Amino acid sequence: MKEKIVLLLFLPFALMGQDYVVDxxxxxxxxSAKITEVSPKNRVIYSWGWNMNNDQSDLIKEFQxxxxxVRYQYNITLTKKLxxxxxxxxxxxAYQLNNDSSTLYIDSVxxxxxxxxxxxxxxxxxxxxxxxxxxxxxxxxxxxLYGDLLARSIYLxxxxxxxxxxxxxxxxxxxxxxxxxxxxxxxxYKNICFFSKTRISMLVNNLTQGVELPxxxxxxxxxxxxxxxx
Amino acid sequence: xxKKITYVLLLTFFSLLGKGNSxxxxxxxxNTEHLFNPYEYFDSNAIKNKRLMNLxxxxxxxxxxxxxxxxxxxxxxxxLGYVLRWFNGVSVYCSETSISEIKxxxxxxxxxxxxxxxxxxxxxxxxxxKVKKNFPVFTWQLNTMGGDFFKKRNLxxxxxxxxxxxxxxxxxxxxxxxxxxxTNSRLIDAWDFSIDKPLDYNxxxxxxxxxxxxxxxxxxxxxxxxxxxSEILFAKIKSLFSSNKSIEESWLKAVEWxxxxxxxxxxxSVGYIEGNHSLDMLTGDSCLMSIxxxxxxxxxxxxxxxxxxxxxxxxxRIGFPSDADSILTVGAIDRKLGVRTGYSSYxxxxxxxxxxxxxxxxxxxxxxxxxxxxxEGTSFSxxxxxxxxxxxxxxxxxxxxxxxxxxxxxxxSLYPYFDYSHGYGVPRATLYFNEDTIKGDNPSIALLKSPxxxxxxxxYFKYLSHPGTQIFxxxxxxxxxxxxxKVVTFEKSSESPKIYFKNHSKGQMIRVFHRGTYIEKEF
Lengths: 230, 523
Hints:
The complex is a heterodimer of chains A (230) and B (523). Chain A has 230 residues and is mainly β. Helix content of chain A is 8%, strand content 55%.
């Protein structure tokens, strides 16, 4: 029995009598330019991040204030290591507010949890420097200017009244500006990078109802080629 | 500081945007009457080479371009680039409207748009800084090609002039490996063709410096290249910001200049893909650089070009000008495995010419004066072969470029076997001097039919010696191209390994190579 087990264990290895170091098939008909028509400069970028409080304020719970975006970016070659980026995408951003009376958005005083959620269509333009001609093989740095167009805004509250949980959702918030813009910086290696976004426009347009929301978002991104080589 | 950076960025950005289109205008004819004195035009070394190879002193390609044509074209263009005698034309920078007018001129034969220079790339890079100091590794690198056999015979490229065409030679004048070419007056000339000025060693990348080391470098008594006694020409062809020439025209001008200066060999560890050229154009006669490579060979100068590092990218195949059949294209093998590295570009050319022609190690060590560094790329395989070619030329100075290419191919490790990854294999001095202990030995392998072939449909290899070593084999299509090729190591030596050749039709052929034994059988 013991021998049988040993034989079964080693049988796969005994069958692998050959080690192909090179194994190539050549088809002259495949010798075409088709594969080069798709450029590796097309990128799809996924971002995960967090909205961060301004220096001394404690307006939001940072690690519950998530940011996510997906965008398409095209890198136009200027030189081997310098690119012009253009892109568009969609982002989701949430601000989990602390229960602080100084941050009154609508009727927030009596709720246990308060969250502001935004969805934006975005566009960007910027410059990319990288240490190697291949987009996926080098350190890179990008400085981009972005613009967001608000698609959806929600004010979400949760609480408990008379022993019953309740959830309240208000959309189309009238105190939020539709257009936002700012800078984005990305630094990374190969397909992974860190990003930081700084909004320079005001998001809350009626400060009598509250204070301005934090302007900095920080996180990481995965940059996947939409075509061409990986 | 931020202001300064912004200024530089904006300046670069707008200068790139503002760059006009660049074209090459080819004229219908040259002057019918001309005064051309080859003894004035060519360097004395070039004259000597032509006599040695029994070549004509000059031909139509060397005659000057008609200056009246140039003046007329200049009136319609923003600026002119290089005048290229070999192609009877001039490089022109102008708008699309102006080039349409130039096309209408009666003496204009053809207008070509220069390729996008950003696709023009040096074919090597550094992958590791500061490797543990170990200088004997240089001797080992050369001995993969039998370098000690050249050394024993005092063959070191003496009196062979080699032109190194590259993107930059930063620090070449200070690099300890190249000191001897500066102190012993072996550096004949150095020119920056990207700006048409003398070469500045403080500008540009060091890629050319690295490449040159593998041709002529030496550290005391340790050789880094096969040919430390050869004479060198430096031709820089690219400047990132200040270049006022198209990179393709700079390369062509550098080749013409190298010929004029009497170079017998040109090492070009650069090439390009994409741009306005596609894979379908890898025919050796679509790109001016490839045509120049063929012309150079006819005129007595062999260009050794790196195959390219596109093996693991979408392009996959060799780049331009490696597709020219008279250019010796060099692929890269892995230092440890001895077979093609992942990045080394595949052949063949579109017209099914064998490419790469030969291979050499591509993962190499280089000394920057302080640290040993690890580099990789076909960029560094090519100069090892260039140095090898220089030693062969020193031994047989009358060899014409095509004879030299043939000699190198025949002295390669796999010859007469070849495939689209390894060409004829690695050139070896042992084979060149016919002192190889492997080739000429008893057969090492047999290819036998199955005892019951009609039913089993398989052949099998039988080791006659050295089991466990690599076997190269391929199936050749009826039309002559290699349909399929493999390199295989049989790990189990006790059994006769079987290879099934299913789905192969009559007329196809199998070729096998193992340690000098070459077998060819038709199905």
